[in-house]
Design goal:
334 residues; alpha+beta; Cyclic Phosphodiesterase, Chain: A; seven-stranded antiparallel sheet; four-stranded antiparallel sheet; 6 helices; Cyclic_Pdiesterase
Length: 334
C-alpha cells in the first residue's frame, strides 16, 4: 500500500499561525473524529485559544435562504449561491447532539420554489412556508408544509423501580439474543408505560404540567399480568397492565391538566380508549410471533412494582427532556 500526503481544504475562519501547540483527536464519545488544537506560540505571542477541525460538511454558501428551529434542531432550506443559482437543498444541525454536525436531508413531494421574501415558521414538528417572490419578481401566496423529515415525537412516560425495570429488560434481552426483536435496545429506550404521545406539543407547557401533577403524586403501584400484541402496528408485543383505580385517576388528572394548557389528547390516550401497557418488542417478524409469546411466558407473570418517575421523552432518537421523581412534593415535606 502506498501512502501519499494530500493537502486538505478546510472551511471556516483561518487559525492564526503557531507552533509548539497540542493537537489531539477526540475520543469515541463523539459521533465523528475531530481534531482539537490548543495553544502554541508564534512571533513571541503565546495562545490559549481552542480550535476544532471537524470532518462534517457544512451547507454550501448561500443567501436569501430560510432558517427555522424545530425543537433544538436548526433547519436551513434553499436560497441562492454566489452565482445566483437557485438551491432547493435542506440541512439540519442538532444543537443537542454530542458534536455539532450538519446533515443533508431528503424530502419527498414538491418543494417550495427556491424563492425569497418568504415567511418560514415551525408548527409542531413541521415547517410551514408561506408566500414568496420568485426570480421574475412575481409574488406568490403558496402555503407548503414540510413534515415527516422532522421525525421527532414526544411521549410522557412512567419509569419503574429498579426491580420491575430489570424484569422487563430481561424480556428485551431474551428476545434480542434470539434475534426476534432488538429495536428497543438499539434505540436506547427504557422500560416504561406511556401516558401520552404526540407530534405537536409545547415542551415548556408540558414540562410545567408534569411538574405540577408529578410532584403531588406518590409512586404508583403497577402489575403486568398478561401478554398482548398489536399485529397491525409494527407487530408490537407488550405486557398488559392490570386495571387499577390509582393509575386511571392519575391518567385522568394528567389529561385534564394538559387540556387546560391547550394540549390536544389523542383518541388512543383518552380514558375510554387507553390501554396501559409496557412494550417488550417491536417489528417482530410474523413468522416468529408464536415463538416470542412462548419466550415471554417464562417471565412468570404477573410482574409487579412501582412507577417512580414521570418523564417527557423525545423520539427519535430517544432523548429524555425532563424527568421528575413522583411524590417530590411529599418527599420535601417529610
Amino acid at each position: 500500500m502506498v501512502r501519499r500526503w494530500e493537502k486538505v481544504n478546510v472551511d471556516g475562519g483561518p487559525m492564526p499561525l503557531r507552533h509548539n501547540h497540542s493537537c489531539n483527536i477526540l475520543d469515541d464519545t463523539v459521533t465523528r473524529d475531530d481534531l482539537c488544537i490548543f495553544g502554541g506560540v508564534c512571533d513571541g505571542k503565546t495562545y490559549n485559544d481552542l480550535h476544532f477541525l471537524g470532518t462534517c460538511v457544512a451547507p454550501p454558501p448561500r443567501e436569501c435562504h430560510s432558517v427555522v428551529f424545530v425543537g433544538r434542531k436548526l433547519y436551513v432550506f434553499g436560497g441562492f449561491d454566489k452565482d445566483n443559482k437557485e438551491l432547493d437543498d435542506l440541512y439540519v444541525l442538532d444543537a443537542d447532539a454530542s458534536s455539532l454536525e450538519w446533515n443533508q436531508l431528503s424530502a419527498t413531494g414538491t418543494p417550495p420554489s427556491t424563492l425569497h421574501t418568504r415567511a418560514c415558521k415551525a408548527w409542531g414538528n413541521n415547517i410551514i412556508v408561506v408566500g414568496d417572490v420568485d426570480t421574475s419578481n412575481m409574488s406568490h401566496s403558496d402555503v407548503r408544509m414540510l413534515g415527516g423529515t422532522m421525525s421527532q415525537s414526544y411521549a410522557v412516560e412512567l419509569y419503574f423501580d429498579p426491580a420491575l425495570e430489570n424484569q422487563v429488560l430481561k424480556a428485551w434481552n431474551v428476545l434480542a439474543r434470539r434475534q426476534i426483536s432488538t429495536q428497543l435496545i438499539e434505540i436506547e429506550s427504557r422500560p416504561h408505560l406511556t401516558l401520552f404521545w404526540s407530534d405537536f406539543v409545547d415542551v415548556a407547557k408540558l414540562e410545567n404540567v408534569l411538574r405540577l401533577i408529578g410532584s403531588k403524586q406518590e409512586p404508583l403501584p403497577l402489575s403486568f399480568s398478561s401478554i398482548g400484541s398489536l399485529p397491525n402496528d409494527n407487530n408490537v408485543l407488550f405486557l398488559g397492565h392490570t386495571p387499577s383505580v390509582s393509575l386511571l385517576q392519575f391518567q385522568s388528572q394528567l389529561c385534564d391538566a394538559m387540556r387546560k394548557e391547550g394540549v390536544e389528547i389523542g383518541e388512543e390516550y383518552r380514558l375510554d380508549k387507553w390501554i396501559p401497557h409496557c412494550l417488550v418488542a417491536q417489528e417482530v417478524p410474523k413468522a416468529r410471533m408464536a415463538e416470542a409469546f412462548t419466550l415471554l411466558r417464562d417471565l412468570k407473570l404477573p410482574v409487579s412494582g412501582y412507577a417512580m418517575e414521570i418523564s417527557l421523552v423525545e423520539y427519535q432518537p430517544v432523548r429524555e427532556l425532563f424527568s421528575l421523581t413522583l411524590g417530590t412534593h411529599y418527599l420535601s415535606e417529610a
